[in-house]
User: Which sequence fits this backbone?
């Protein structure tokens, strides 16, 4: 790892202001960032790493009437064990329970999880071996390379990576809103290819809070090759919202997690074995897998159905 | 149905039956305490004031030649202490480890050609920090000539493939990337055998490269300093980390030899290193660190190899096509086997594979069957990608068991019956393992025809078993030295420890044979004890107890010869019981053995059994139960049972622990593990612990170990090797076949392959 200056922030605004003055990255749990810096996977190295953990009062999980309000510094393990989250944002609590391992969950934060960079193995090769689309290059090496873990819904801005956040589909399905030092964003709009980032944040923008509307019922499923310390090949969340509609989101299938409205329509009349299967088929009807990622279509199909059946 | 092996007990005390210590439990090992308490020091724990860092230029391409044009900017950078290039006179004269029994391994320690992405080449920099090293390396002006590379041994075998090592043999332009013509072995008349067959089938088996399973990157640390003993020539002594579990510190010593020093000029610093699988790949860092340190007057040097760079050692690829002929009753009558086996880049075990495996590996397994007609062909092909390490034994058995499964599938027989019908020697070892394993696993209750059982959760259920030999490893001479002083027996060891606990097993054997209390036998690490070949690997670790036994017997004899006079008796009239010398006729007459003064002895030798033979005396049978999710292709191993003939189990916790370790490795290799390179660039894609998917604790199946003791092995009391036999994942594939009715020809059995076998997808591969 190279040297950088490490600065403690007293507030999100101060962190944001500090970041705007030089090349900087934010650190909370550090479970993603430290590996990134050790391996030097990015085209440039930050002069400064701004520590958000010193910001007080940004790690709470509280009941705000119709929503669960979650501070960006709330630990993944805290969310997985939160009675409030388990009762009203079940899919999110279940997703948190599936993140990595106990030690990582005890370090990692919800803000960090939604801001983690992609796990595409071309993007992650140390020493920036592949100057891919995300790093200012003009091609995606995964498109013609080994794409077994990559997108099955085509490219986004020329990138074929697969989103790797465990919590993102749950936040989308639950209709969460993400607050930053600059704005509020619907979770569905938050996750998007943006240079090296997997979200819409600007370089000096800090996630401060996540508001998750309470859902009557929600569920989450994750498919990975290992039972712990693994990123999803595919994950899926579904929620029954206040108006009794169902919202379904898939992760690991596209550079950003996607809401599957065709599948939602298939269960608009209620969830049965048959309608769940129809929804699953509809969810993958538009898939355009890469040469080696075709099997993920079947996994996505299975997960959509299984997740919906949990809402039945 | 098979023959019986009559094992003639060889050597002294092989027939011993009265064990007081060997085979008993409740003896916490010294290593266990070290590791559990944190007392164990690994190379990464080592540090000295003023340590400098060394790093090499790493090749960013699949294969390339580098021209070092200018190092002046790097040399001028503040904090840089030394820059050496491949043209450096001393470095260029230093070979990498050269196995004495193989002629093609020789290659320079640092050359201008890199054989794989991440390979060291061209330049090494020593500086005050890793960051300065990186900056200095970026200032070195180089020019790369990208060369063609090959990642798959099957591609290397194709006519017209790029010749990777033109110097390898004079005929390389004719023979391609191999050491010569494929090795063949023949028994009977294969074509006649196929004429007798009622069924003829062709089976495929293949596996990609596996990592050596190392959770911690090597940490090469070295310095030169005065030695309290001093040196007649006034030279300092080199202190180095010990990174080779075999053969002793040979690779490091070769560096000294290359640098004009000698073996007695070094001291090993740490006995512990991270877990490795049969690591015959010697890393340049082990040789660079002491050489660079010496060049700088002995200053401590840490040579950096990152975790990703430590994925440069792999278990080789192997691809089989086997045509089998068999009769209606399941009897194998003809085998025609062709094997393409990989030899990786220079510096690995692959360099000597050709010389090591005396016979075609696939013939080794089929030779152990009763099949009278066998033709086997095995070719070794060099590739890029990584160095390759050892692959002892498993190749011999994976295609054999696949053949048995194919027979079972064709004839609707349990594979257990096919095994017993076709393995040449079944008694006593195989019969005992099969019976004990079937009972423990519940084979008779669980077995069904392929595709015929669905679990309550909708997944398909499958089981299989397979047989394999338990290696004797009689080829290596072990060296044990013992000294009795003041009532205790001391045994020094020097080899690095990778968790096989052989010193703890040797301690028990020594106590058993000498009559000492276990606590009066002291095993201690002696870093400067120039011992050679105390086996610390799984199989050698078990059988090196032979040497410990022989040495202990001799020590006891000497103690009795000296001590008997104090008791007014002859040597054969006294014994040692609980660390006391006693008169056999009247055990109340006794004296402390310490009163006899200091007595020492040693034994260097090997178990008196042939190394590779078609009569396998000790066997094991593994059983596996899986559940297959037909919607996602995910395979879960539910139960893994291993009935292993230990011959004689010496230290139960070590022996059974070895089985669990090996089955863990097998489950990872079966379901997830493979090294993946980008085919276009030769860049390794999964050189990290996220993307190279070793099993986690939650991924472990239920593991049931069933020890069998037939006393048929070649080690002490008929003991035998353990772990190697269980490290492959082919058995899981056979269980999947029992579940879904289809064979999958390539490991690992990942969801894409399972879904393809089920006909749900068609993947381009």
Assistant:
């Amino acid at each position: 790892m190279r040297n950088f200056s490490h600065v403690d922030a007293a507030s999100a605004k101060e962190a944001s202001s500090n970041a705007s003055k030089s090349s900087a990255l934010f650190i909370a749990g550090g479970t993603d960032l430290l590996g990134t810096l050790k391996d030097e996977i990015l085209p440039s190295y930050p002069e400064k790493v701004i520590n958000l953990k010193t910001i007080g009062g940004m790690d709470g999980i509280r009941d705000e009437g119709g929503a669960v309000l979650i501070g960006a510094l709330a630990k993944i393990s805290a969310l997985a064990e939160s009675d409030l989250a388990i009762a009203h944002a079940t899919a999110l609590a279940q997703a948190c329970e599936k993140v990595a391992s106990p030690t990582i969950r005890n370090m990692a934060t919800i803000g960090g999880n939604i801001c983690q960079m992609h796990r595409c193995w071309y993007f992650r090769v140390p020493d920036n071996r592949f100057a891919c689309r995300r790093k200012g290059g003009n091609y995606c090496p995964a498109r013609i390379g080994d794409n077994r873990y990559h997108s099955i819904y085509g490219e986004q801005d020329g990138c074929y990576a697969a989103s790797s956040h465990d919590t993102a589909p749950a936040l989308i399905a639950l209709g969460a809103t993400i607050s930053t030092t600059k704005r509020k964003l619907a979770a569905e709009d938050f996750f998007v290819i943006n240079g090296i980032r997997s979200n819409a944040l600007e370089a000096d923008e800090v996630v401060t809070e996540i508001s998750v509307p309470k859902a009557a019922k929600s569920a989450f499923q994750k498919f990975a090759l290992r039972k712990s310390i693994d990123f999803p090949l595919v994950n899926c969340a579904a929620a029954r919202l206040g108006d009794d509609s169902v919202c379904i989101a898939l992760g690991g299938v596209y550079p950003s997690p996607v809401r599957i409205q065709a599948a939602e329509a298939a269960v608009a009349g209620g969830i049965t074995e048959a309608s769940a299967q129809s929804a699953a088929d509809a969810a993958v009807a538009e898939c355009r897998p890469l040469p080696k990622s075709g099997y993920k279509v079947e996994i996505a199909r299975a997960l959509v159905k299984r997740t919906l059946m949990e809402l039945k | 149905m098979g023959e019986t092996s009559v094992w003639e007990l060889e050597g002294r005390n092989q027939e011993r039956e009265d064990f007081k210590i060997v085979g008993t439990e409740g003896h916490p090992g010294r290593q266990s305490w070290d590791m559990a308490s944190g007392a164990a020091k690994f190379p990464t724990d080592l540090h000295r004031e003023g340590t400098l860092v060394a790093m090499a230029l790493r090749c960013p391409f699949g294969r390339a030649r580098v021209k070092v044009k200018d190092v002046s900017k790097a040399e001028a950078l503040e904090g840089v202490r030394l820059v050496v290039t491949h043209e450096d006179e001393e470095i260029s004269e230093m070979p990498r480890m050269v196995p004495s029994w193989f002629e093609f391994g020789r290659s320079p320690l640092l050359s201008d050609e890199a054989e794989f992405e991440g390979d060291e080449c061209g330049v090494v920099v020593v500086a005050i920090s890793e960051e300065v090293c990186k900056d200095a390396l970026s200032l070195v002006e180089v020019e790369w000539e990208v060369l063609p590379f090959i990642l798959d041994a099957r591609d290397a075998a194709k006519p017209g493939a790029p010749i990777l090592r033109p110097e390898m043999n004079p005929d390389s332009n004719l023979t391609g990337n191999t050491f010569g013509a494929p090795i063949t072995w023949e028994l009977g008349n294969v074509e006649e055998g196929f004429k007798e067959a009622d069924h003829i089938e062709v089976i495929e088996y293949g596996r990609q490269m596996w990592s050596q399973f190392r959770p911690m990157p090597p940490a090469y640390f070295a310095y030169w300093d005065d030695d309290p003993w001093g040196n007649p020539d006034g030279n300092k002594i080199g202190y180095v980390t010990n990174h080779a579990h075999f053969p002793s510190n040979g690779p490091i010593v070769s560096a000294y030899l290359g640098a004009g020093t000698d073996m007695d000029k070094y001291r090993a610093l740490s006995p512990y290193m991270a877990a490795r699988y049969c690591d015959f790949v010697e890393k340049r860092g082990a040789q660079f660190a002491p050489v660079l340190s010496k060049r700088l007057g002995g200053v401590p040097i840490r040579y950096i190899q990152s975790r990703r760079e430590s994925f440069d050692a792999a278990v080789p690829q192997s691809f089989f096509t086997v045509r089998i002929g068999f009769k209606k009753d399941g009897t194998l009558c003809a085998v025609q086997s062709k094997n393409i086996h990989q030899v990786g880049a220079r510096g690995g075990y692959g360099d000597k594979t050709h010389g090591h495996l005396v016979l075609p590996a696939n013939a080794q397994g089929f030779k152990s069957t009763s099949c009278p007609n066998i033709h086997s062909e095995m070719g070794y092909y060099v590739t890029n990608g990584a160095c390759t390490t050892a692959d002892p034994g498993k190749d011999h058995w994976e295609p054999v068991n696949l053949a048995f499964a194919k027979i079972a599938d064709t004839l609707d027989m349990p594979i257990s019956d096919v095994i017993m019908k076709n393995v040449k020697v079944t008694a006593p070892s195989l019969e005992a393992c099969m019976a004990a394993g079937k009972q423990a696993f519940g084979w008779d209750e669980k077995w069904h025809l392929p595709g015929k059982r669905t679990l309550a959760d909708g997944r398909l259920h499958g089981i299989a078993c397979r047989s394999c030999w338990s290696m004797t490893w009689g080829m290596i001479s072990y060296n044990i030295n013992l000294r009795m002083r003041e009532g205790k027996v001391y045994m020094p060891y020097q080899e690095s420890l990778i968790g096989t606990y052989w010193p703890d097993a040797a301690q028990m054997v020594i106590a058993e044979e000498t009559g000492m209390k276990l606590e009066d036998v002291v095993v201690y690490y002696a870093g400067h004890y120039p011992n050679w070949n105390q086996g610390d690997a799984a199989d050698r670790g078990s059988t090196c107890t032979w040497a410990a036994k022989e040495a202990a017997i001799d020590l006891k004899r000497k103690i009795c010869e000296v001590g008997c006079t104090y008791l007014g008796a002859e040597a054969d009239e006294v014994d040692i019981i609980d660390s006391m010398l006693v008169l056999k006729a009247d055990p109340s007459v006794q004296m402390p053995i310490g009163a006899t003064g200091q007595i020492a002895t040693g034994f260097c030798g090997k178990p008196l059994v042939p190394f590779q033979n078609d009569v396998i005396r000790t066997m094991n049978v593994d059983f596996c139960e899986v559940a297959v999710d037909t919607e996602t292709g995910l395979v879960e191993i539910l139960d893994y049972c291993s009935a292993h003939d230990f011959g004689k189990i010496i230290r139960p916790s070590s022996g059974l622990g070895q089985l669990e370790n090996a089955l863990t490795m097998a489950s990872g290799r079966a379901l997830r593990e493979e090294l993946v390179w980008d085919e276009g660039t030769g860049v390794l894609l999964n050189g990290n612990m996220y993307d190279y998917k070793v099993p986690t604790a939650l991924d472990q199946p239920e593991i049931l170990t069933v020890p069998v003791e037939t006393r048929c092995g070649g080690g002490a009391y008929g003991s035998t090797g353990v772990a190697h036999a269980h490290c492959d994942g082919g058995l899981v594939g056979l269980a999947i076949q029992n579940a879904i009715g289809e064979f999958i020809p390539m490991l690992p059995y990942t969801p894409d392959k399972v879904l393809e076998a089920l006909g749900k997808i068609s993947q381009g591969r």
Chain B has three domains: 4-40+477-605, 44-147+212-312, 424-472+613-765. Confidence is low (pLDDT under 50) at residues 99-105, 352-359 of chain B.
